[in-house]
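Bumping my old thread because nobody answered last time. Still need a sequence for this structure:
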């Protein structure tokens, strides 16, 4: 009689099935891990892409700004040329105010009744204290003197005129000396002359001085 052991075969079949299930679980676990890894990798790449897109938007905005500036370049150049021309005109006017025009205005002020030269107040106060005769006379009647000629060459001025007497010429010279616009005032030789039917005696005088501007 032949006996066959079927119990052992059943045990081997169960063991084989158990081992196959274990490998299947391992494979499934690896697949799941791989899927999770791919998902995380994809998310990281999406974040990098978003960051690059944000940078690109900033650069694009800067480019658009530069394009606008370039588009207005000619307008800006024209505006700058106009502004510089205006500044040059203002500078010329300022130079005129501090140049010969200012000097002539100073002469007019010196010869205006009730006015005097443009001088340093502290210096005038000290002169009045030290030597009252060195300052100008505020009560002088400037109508006693007339200017007949004013010539400037290289900031050297020659003034000619007529005065009622020598005191008027002296007063004009003092005012010119005290003015901040003039210096090195020199009285040139003059002469007396008679004018008009009334035989009015006048002093024909000349002054030489230098100007500051």
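Sorry it took so long. Here it is:
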């Amino acid at each position: 009689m032949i006996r066959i052991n079927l119990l052992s075969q059943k045990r081997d079949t169960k063991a084989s099935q158990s081992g196959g299930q274990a490998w299947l679980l391992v494979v499934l676990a690896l697949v799941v891990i791989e899927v999770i890894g791919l998902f995380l990798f994809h998310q990281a790449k999406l974040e990098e892409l978003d960051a690059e897109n944000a940078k690109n938007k900033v650069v694009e905005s800067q480019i658009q700004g530069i394009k606008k500036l370039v588009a207005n370049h000619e307008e800006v150049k024209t505006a700058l040329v106009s502004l510089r021309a205006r500044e040059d005109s203002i500078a010329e006017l300022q130079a005129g105010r501090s140049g010969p025009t200012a000097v002539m205005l100073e002469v007019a002020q010196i010869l205006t009744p009730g006015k005097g030269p443009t001088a340093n107040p502290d210096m005038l106060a000290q002169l009045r204290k030290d030597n009252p005769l060195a300052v100008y006379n505020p009560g002088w009647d400037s109508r006693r003197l007339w200017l007949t000629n004013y010539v400037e060459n290289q900031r050297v001025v020659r003034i000619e005129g007529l005065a009622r007497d020598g005191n008027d010429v002296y007063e004009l010279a003092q005012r010119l000396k005290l003015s901040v616009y003039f210096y090195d005032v020199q009285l040139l030789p003059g002469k007396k002359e008679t004018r008009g039917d009334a035989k009015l005696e006048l002093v024909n005088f000349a002054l030489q001085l230098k100007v500051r501007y």
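The chain is about 60% helix and 20% strand. Let me know if any region looks off to you.
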